[in-house]
Amino acid sequence: MSIKNIRIEVMQTLEKNIDVFLDKFLIAPEKIWQPSDFLPNPQGDNFTDEVKEIREISKDLSDDFWISLVGDMITEEALPTYESWLLDLEGISQHTENGDNGWASWIRKWTAEENRHGDVLNKYIYLSGRVNMREIEITTQHLIADGFDIGTSRDPYKNFVYTSFQELATFVSHNNVAKIAKEAGMKSLAKMCRRIGGDEMRHHKAYTEFVNQIFAIDPSEMMLAYLHMMKHKIVMPAMHLREAFGSKGSLFDTFSDAAQRMKVYTSFDYVNIIKTLNSNWNIDKITGLTPEAEKARAYLIKLPDIMQRIAERIVVPEQSHHFKWMNPKIA
Fold it and tell me: How many other CB atoms sit within 10 Å of the CB of residue 230?
C-alpha cells in the first residue's frame, strides 16, 4: 500500500471517533464566549464613557505593543486561508454522499471558534483610536489574497504537526499580550486575550492528540513528518505581511522585531514549543521505528538545544520601523 493510501486509512480510522473530539475540544456557539461579552454595549447608557476609557488607557502603550496586537489580530483574520488549506488535506472531504465527512465537520467548527478571535480584537483595536484601520484592512486583504505555503502539501501528518505548533504559538502570544495589558490597567483587553489564549490551548491539545493517535498507528511515518516540519521550520501565518503598496512579506521581519521587543513572541518561545511537543508526544518512548525514523527521533531530541544556541545569538534591533498602521498617540 502506498504512503498516501496508508495516510488516508489512518485518517479514516481516527475519523470514527471524531464526535468524541468535537465534544471534548470544541464548544457550542450558545455556550462559548462571544466578542460582545468583552466590548462596550452600543445599546447601553455607558457606551460612550466606556469607549472614552478604552481610548484614555490606550494612549500610553507603545507602538510596539499595538503593532504586536494588530499583527495577532490580522493573523486571526486570515482564517479563510487556513480553512481552505485544511479542507484540501488527504482524508478530508466535503463531497461525500452525505455531505462533509467527520474531518470537514471538525475543520468548519474549529474555524467558527477561531473566527471570534479576529472579530473581538478588530473591534477593540478600532475603538482604541491608536491605529489607522484602513491601512490595517489593506494589510489583511493582502494577507488573505497572497495566501501562503506551510510546506505540508496535502499531507495530514505534517499539517497536524503544523497546527499543534501554531496553536501553541498563538496561545503564547495572546497570553503575553494579556500580561502586558493587565499591567497597563487594560482589564477588558487582558481578559479578552486570556480567553482567546484559552481557546488556542484547547485547540492545541486537540491537534496534539490527533498526532498522538497517529504515532500509535503509524509511528515511523509520523516521526518523519515531524522531522520534515522541524527541519524546514514552522512558517508563521504572518510571513507575507505587507503594507499598502508594499511587496509581499516586506513587513514580517519588522513585525517580528516588535513582537520580540515586547516579549510577545520570541525565538526562545519557538524553542520552548519544540520542547513541549517532544514531551507531549513522548517521542523518546515511541517504539517500532524504522532506522530512518530512529535517526529522525535522535535529531528531534537534540533540536531544542540547537535552536536555543541560535536564539541566544539573535540580536533584535532597538530601532522600531514606522508602520502605516499606527496613528500618532492620542493627546
Answer: 20
DSSP readout, 145-201? Answer: HH----S-TT-HHHHHHHHHHHHHHHHHHHHHHHHHHHHTT-HHHHHHHHHHHHHHH
Flag whether 158 is in a domain.
Answer: yes
Answer yes or no: is pLDDT of 97 > 90.
Answer: no
Is there a domain that residue 175 lies in?
no
296 grid coordinates? 529522525
Within a domain: residue 157?
yes
Domain limits at 259?
3-168+198-235+249-313
Q: For cell 505534517, name the residue.
A: 158
- pLDDT per residue as tens digits for the range 286-296: 999 999 999 99
> For residues 288 and 297, what is the distance between their CA atoms, to the nearest angstrom?
12
pLDDT digit string, tens, across residues 169-224: 999 999 999 999 999 999 999 999 999 999 999 999 999 999 999 999 999 999 99
| CA-to-CA separations, 139 to 64, 116, 196, 291, 327, in angstroms, rounded | 17, 19, 22, 46, 15
Check pLDDT > 60 for residue 120: yes
Tell me the residue ranges of DSSP E strands in the chain: none
Cβ-contact 324, 135 below 8 angstroms:
yes
Q: What is the CATH number of the domain that holds 218?
A: 1.10.620.20
Q: What residues are annotated to the active site?
A: 33, 76, 114, 117, 167, 170, 199-200, 203
Structural domain includes residue 187? no
